[in-house]
Amino acid sequence: xxxxxxxxxxxxxxxxxxxxxxxxxxxxxxxxxxxxxxxxxxxxxxxxxxxxxxxxxxxxxxxxxxxxxxxxxxxxxxxxxxxxxxxxxxxxxxxxxxxxxxxxxxxxxxxxxxxxxxxxxxxxxxxxxxxxxxxxxxxxxxxxxxxxxxxxxxxxxxxxxxxxxxxxxxxxxxxxxxxxxxxxxxxxxxxxxxxxxxxxxxxxxxxxxxxxxxxxxxxxxxxxxxxxxxxxxxxxxxxxxxxxxxxxxxxxxxxxxxxxxxxxxxxxxxxxxxx
Length: 275
Ligand SMILES: C[S@@+](CC[C@H](N)C(=O)[O-])C[C@H]1O[C@@H](n2cnc3c(N)ncnc32)[C@H](O)[C@@H]1O
Prior knowledge:
10 helices, binds S-adenosylmethionine, 2 domains, Rossmann fold, 12 strands, Chemotaxis Receptor Methyltransferase Cher, domain 1, about 40% helix, 7-stranded mixed sheet
């Protein structure tokens, strides 16, 4: 069986290997047509995902796939779903959320109003988890939760705020009773009292401007797809966006090397404080 090396990976099997230069042209067209720039992402990972879709439809080259994407919104949706992994749940890694609650309550002794940003919020569970914590601390009306994602389809799901039971596995029954309504089909609708302070917005972390004076930023399980340079630049921008004392809360596999250099004090694994 023929094997080729591409983007540092060995490709083999019964599908056509499409070359890297053609993929770069494809990526350039996607940037123009769909306002999605793949340049900060790990190229091999992106290409693998796109090539999976190409194989699914037996397309021979990227221009054929581009033509279909151009004409068919359902294929565009599928494209976004495939390249952006939207897996999430309420209070993902519950122990870390206890720590987040602690840091926020400490910060609230100094700061009475502000914004908490869920950056890469996917279907909204993270943003609504923040809103629930704020309401539990009696402070939701003084704070705003900004929730952003690149993927416009997933933001529609987030705005609806209706979830399968499995998304609530880390939510205890008293919080479920307080913040959700069980629908006839067995799913759960987040209630307005947690929803009304959350604003969802399409935003690209690699290219769009950031708000300033943010009290806390959660960016969890997003940067795993980014190239090292893009990641480093992002952390610098997060640092500039935070108020002094503000908290940056990262995902379970993420870490900032030399964070002090960019004004972020490591507080404990996955938490940094703006100096
Ligand atoms: C795995 S989800 C993480 C959801 C949530 N933060 C969590 O930890 O449960 C990753 C999200 O990052 C989003 N994303 C990927 N690249 C992005 C970018 N450049 N700007 C904003 N969001 C991005 C994806 O659309 C996806 O919804």
